[in-house]
Write a structure and sequence with these properties.
heterotetramer, A: 82 residues, B: 156 residues, alpha+beta, Aldehyde Oxidoreductase, domain 3, 4-stranded mixed β-sheet
Chain lengths: 82, 156, 156, 82
């Protein structure tokens, strides 16, 4: 399984805080394409979104990052703390 | 529970500048300079009044991201000690949000390091701000181009 | 007696960072950033142990010189408030000597202004340091070329 | 009269904190030359000293600065506060 987290306005847009999915995706990109098949707002928020931020196991990652079972994958907007 | 990163604190509680700096300096007799930055809630943003500011973060990643920034500062400049406190939860105008404090023998290093840590924190630490505006409307704060530019000035 | 420069304090007494910053911020709701610098006594200088540091100043001129530097900072950057406290008298290692604190809406201005004020204070405010070394020997601290260079980087 | 002040190691070297003198000098330089006639260490500390700092009425001044009755003139080494 992989563990997926959503933060800030992505969390609100998608109405989802976290979920677990089978570990069947090779990369973050594969996972995103799969999630986008849920239709809107998933497609817009995750695929058609050039400012989407990605972390894999607490490190900043990209669409090309490889993922495997047990990984924690997070999606969020650009950060605004401080 | 002992925190894994003793110089990083993510907390709901407020902090006291004097006692945090005292803790930071404890045991060092060769410190000549302590620079600190305190970020506070403004009552206006983008031309609108802000009554409540909410701060969300990504537990686990936040601590790791802040510690990475802190250690990077120690690699770039000769520093004696540093700490980062970032609050989460709900805030009102003029509440304290964040403290970065750096102690060094000579002032220049502490100035640069504190500024660097804040600029990197702004663009690399997973925190998000949500504002409550007049009438109860809420909005997520947009990231600023100026923050990205500020970070890029430190590129090696 | 009301001081002629309310944001400049030359004093023997120690200062408390938290309460000084609270005073500085009082009445401002649009402050987002407070940068402060605290200068402290190091237990070593030029390779020798320092047990006592004495600070002498030129009463009257000091206040005027510091106020001039402070106002220059307000002209160069958009700031909300600032203060300078400089202690005089006899100090031991790790005692606080000086506080510069600057509050602004955005962090960059406060960072630059605090650094600027310190660099100018170091070369333009009439204070002199005398150190007591092991065995009771004393020496007046020499001015540093690096301080003059630091000041000159701010030349317009 | 003019009021003259000495600070830090100048004060210690000259064994003098302050003094009042008749206002008979046109410039700081004239005053310094006059003080140097007291012999050593006055000459060395005030005339043969390229790092001598001068203030007239609380403003940084130079050897060329004009002085007049009532002025407060201070001599000191480069400052080292902060």
């Amino acid at each position: 399984m992989i563990h997926i987290l959503y933060f800030a306005h992505l969390r609100e847009r998608l109405g989802q805080t976290e979920e677990k999915l089978p570990a069947i995706h090779a990369t973050v990109s594969d996972l995103l394409v799969d999630l986008a098949t849920r239709g809107e707002p998933w497609k817009e928020a995750l695929v058609d979104n050039s400012s989407l931020q990605i972390a894999v196991n607490h490190d900043i990652a990209s669409r090309e990052t490889q993922i495997k079972a047990g990984d924690e994958i997070a999606f969020f907007p650009p950060v605004t703390g401080g | 529970m002992k925190p894994s990163f003793p110089f990083i604190n993510i907390q709901k509680e407020d902090f006291d500048l004097t006692s945090e700096i005292a803790t930071l300096r404890q045991g060092y007799k060769n410190i000549g300079a302590v620079v600190s930055f305190v970020g506070t809630v403004r009552d206006m943003n983008e031309g609108e009044n802000v009554s409540i500011l909410e701060l969300e973060h990504y537990p686990g990643m936040t601590e790791k991201a802040l510690e990475k920034i802190r250690l990077e500062a120690h690699q770039r400049w000769k520093l004696e000690a540093s700490l980062i406190i970032h609050r989460i939860g709900q805030f009102s105008p003029s509440d304290q949000i964040v403290l970065v404090a750096v102690a060094s023998q000579h002032r220049e290093n502490a100035f640069y390091a504190t500024h660097f840590i804040m600029d990197y924190l702004k663009t690399n630490a997973p925190f998000w701000k949500k504002e409550t505006l007049p009438g109860g409307r809420t909005r997520w704060v947009d990231s600023r181009v100026s923050d990205k530019e500020a970070e890029q000035r430190w590129a090696t």
